[in-house]
From TrEMBL:
Matching Gene3D superfamilies: P-loop containing nucleotide triphosphate hydrolases
Organism encoding this protein: Sesamum alatum
Name by which UniProt lists this protein: Sulfotransferase
Protein family per UniProt: Belongs to the sulfotransferase 1 family.
Record flagged with keyword Repeat: no
E.C. numbers: 2.8.2.-
Lineage of producing organism: Eukaryota, Viridiplantae, Streptophyta, Embryophyta, Tracheophyta
A GO molecular-function descriptor: sulfotransferase activity
Record-linked InterPro entries: P-loop_NTPase, Sulfotransferase_dom
PANTHER family in UniProt: SULFOTRANSFERASE SULT
Highest taxon in the source lineage: Eukaryota
Transferase listed as a keyword: yes
Amino acid sequence: MEKKQDLECSSAEVVDNSSNDKFQELLQTLEQVIWDGVPLVKYAGCWLQVNHLRPVLSSQKHFKAKDTDIILSTMPKSGTTWLKALTFSIANRNVFPIDQSPLLTSNPHMLVSFLELNVYWKQDNPNLENIPSPRIFSTHMHFKLLPDSIRESNCKIIYICRNPLDQFVSLIHFLSQKNFGKDPDPIAIDEAFDMYRQGIHAFGPFWDHILGYWNAYLENPRKVLFLKYEDLKEDITSQVKKIAEFMGFPFSQEEEEQGLIDQISGLCSFETLSNLAVNNTGNMEGRVKPNLFFRKGQVGDWTNYLTPAMTERIKKLMDSKFEGSGLRFKT
Ligand code: A3P
């Protein structure tokens, strides 16, 4: 692996990413590795798939957050799909009755777009002004890579993370099924594990991703809501209430008495979403099958895949990386 320059992060990045030459020049300065057959580059200390770098830079340059925006931030395989479904349903509960929810006919990823994987993937500077408020966008970017306007406006950030052991196992399954399960040479679990421990995976290192949002939450809990997948599994009702309050759309007593929280939780549950026809047919923008986002939806599945030695190594790594942060995961 050739060691190259690791840039300091600045979302006031001076790179003109509309200029291919400058972009290529930037690429030349970055450390690169191959991960599951895909080139990753290390930008500002964060590992990104090389084809995600340009949209990340475009979003940093052009995205203008509004105070009413809600940004969902996650690492892949941490509960993004679930959080999209829940926040969309909470924000739109007065627009669509539950039995007419767009979630019944659209995958959650088609209702809430990723900044870097959808919005700025297609265009360098799309017009997002006419999207009705509250605009909900999602991202896998590290906190420090977010466009400045997200940090500087009064928009809200909801972060969900997951026990890294389960996140890794979910990621491995996702990778083995991408390319419609026809990848002739999917990455072996041992190889992926070694890279994961070094923080080398898309949007890694996982500890920096999690700690970036954890520290931002500690600094300003009115700006950042920090959620854990395991807590949603344990008590979805209280978490849905918390999310709605944070978004600025608390449930009224009447809504609670009508059972609206349960209805939204039920609609967004793994059982409901994973059984919908829309999440079992076709493919999403020619890239992946929608059912790839619904595997088991359980806590603790890592025990079925990781050896005791692997588990011990990740636990030790977590202990050292999260030590003193006040952040703990139930394992
Ligand atoms: P598993 O692979 O462990 O089953 P993401 O949405 O960030 O890509 O994360 C995908 C993981 O969340 C998968 O985990 C998937 O099964 C799980 N998941 C998706 N929708 C869910 C839901 N509504 N409730 C709980 N888990 C869900």
